[in-house]
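Quick question about two entries, pasted in order.
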Amino acid sequence: MKRVIDTSEVLGTVETPEGTCEVCVSADADFDEVAGRLVVKLESFLRPASVLVKERHFRAAWLPSDQTITESVAPEECHEAARMIFQRWVRKVREAAPELHHL
């Protein structure tokens, strides 16, 4: 397996019972050159926004469940395909979130 992307993004902040938290998304993508298959693991989570609080990841009921997407693509298309899958994930999580307060 060849690593394609390993990326994450903070979409903004939300207020939770635990305090102000960042809404985060991440993607890890690998390309199986033998099978010609792209495998993208997508996650969404919250983490405390304060630097004075120990970092931990947790879920809210409104966050989409983590997903693994598998697609057959040519080797030269795997980076672009992984980025497009990640951007769709970002959009999905952003739409599911309560009003985000941008950093």
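Here is the second entry:
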Amino acid sequence: MKHMKEMTATFCLALGTIISLVGCTTMAPTYSRPTVPVPASWPNGPSYQTEIVKPLEKPLADITWQEFFVDRQLQGLIKLALENNRNLRIAALNIERSQAQYRIQRATLLPEIDAGAIANNQAAANHRYSVGIGVSSYELDFFGRVRSLKDQALEQYLATEQAQLTVKISLIAEVAATYLNLAADRERLKLGQETLKTQQTTFELIQRRFAVGVSSELDLRQAETQVDSARVDVARFTTLVAQDENYLNLVVGSTVQAELLPQALTDTLTLVKDIGPGLPSDVLLQRPDVLQAENLLKGFNANIGAARAAFFPRITLTASLGAANDELSGLFKSGAGIWTFSPQITLPIFDAGSRSAQLKVAEVDRDIAVAQYEKAIQTAFREVADALAQRGTIDEQVAAQESLITATDKRHILSQARYERGIDSSLNVLDAQRSLYSAQQGLIGTRLTRLVNLVTLYKVLGGGWKEPT
């Protein structure tokens, strides 16, 4: 047994020496990040507010999503979605698959060692016993082919991980936007129901006045059309509320409890924290989808190394060490040791241009990945610029809409008073009611736009996906 241990130690030492002679470099081109194909600063002009473009206290990725979405109900929904959403589950499973692929490629850098024992019964009373360990067809990676494949698998895994972060950020933003839309539609439905009651009361009053000859049929029919219009809105918003709830259940991945649902948009006006994008546009380089594109680019860059290495000889070896004896008791005695060593070299001679074509494909794939990376940055820049353009004017829109409601409400009050005194016709009252209702619905829509814009900024800036520590 002692003799066998000594042989094993000598074998492992020799094997380690061979492995240490293998180069740690590859034939892949040195990676250099492409020049960012967008301006260094965000756009400016009448649509943009420079005061909202301010430096961030810390990187966006280090800000938890709870710091953006401060409403307790919404936080509960987002937490449920992160636990149950099927798209997120698929992304997580893809990461597990990429991890396994990386481990497979990494394992090819090391020899595979097997152990076994055999007892052969040949002729009568003729026995042969053997035991040994061996290396199965280990490729000596002199030219970095295997290492390049491992690097490509690693970048693929990292790209998959970034893809999961992209899905996570998109999911959080989708839950928030759906929550806000549901809140807005519920408030619209409530306003429509209240308006229907008001319009119905006005119609009944004009109907009684028409019956005694005080109001004209034109007044009556005008009041009737506004009642029907309000009925249409109530039915439409009832449908939208139901559809919003169904979609929220889909996004969250389970049926949402009633206590987590919003009642009105007005109750959620402070739901989302206001954020600025930071001064330089290079913050986009940390957006997960941009990082994913860069990881894929690095992977294709590594593939070039593997394709180049294919032009050079591939050296593999099969080695084994063990002991054999005709008697089991003498298996580990001195003189029972056996070993074999079978190196093999494969030299490419003629392949009808296959290796050259494979190298060309690898180089073109790398060039395509560069273009895709640059496009990802340009798309990210455009998304942030669009969100900033809306952010720069939306507060003014909200203020103008609130002022419009104030003026329209005063007009309605005055028209109602003049009508009751017989100074004015009911048509002016009905028109003022319609204008007030339209302005109120417009304010709900404008407030919704403002909040969804903040959610969009959160999403396109690629931040806030971490959990609190």
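Reply: The radius of gyration is 37 Å. Confidence is low (pLDDT under 50) at residues 113-125, 127-136, 321-332. Hope that helps.
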